[in-house]
């Protein structure tokens, strides 16, 4: 695992990107959105202890949502 940092408002990955890793949030907040008819719709906010990508990393799957930092965030 490698610790990384993302600044507020930057995109961690976009809807349609290949799932190629699992993200574990150490601190901060990641907003999850989906695009419906050109509008980003808020789904959830993930914080410390949450993970993203576990259900798709072992196959050739794509993210079905966008993950954007709602605050400065550290993750593995």
Can you offer a commentary on this structure?
The structure is a single chain. The chain is mainly beta. The protein has one domain (4-75): Jelly Rolls (Sandwich), CATH 2.60.120. The protein has strands spanning 4-6, 11-13, 23-27, 30-36, 39-46, 51-52, 66-69, 73-75. Strand 4 (30-36) and strand 5 (39-46) form a beta hairpin. The mean pLDDT is 94.
Report the CATH topology name: Jelly Rolls
Q: Structural class of the helices, strands and pairings?
A: mainly beta
**Which geometry do the CA atoms define?**
globular
Kindly state the mean pLDDT as a whole number? Answer: 94
* Cα separation of the termini: 6 Å
SSE order, as H and E? EEEEEEEE
Q: Walk across the major sheet and give the strand order.
A: 1-8-3-6
Count of extended strands = 8
Number of domains: 1
CA-atom Rg in angstroms: 12 Å
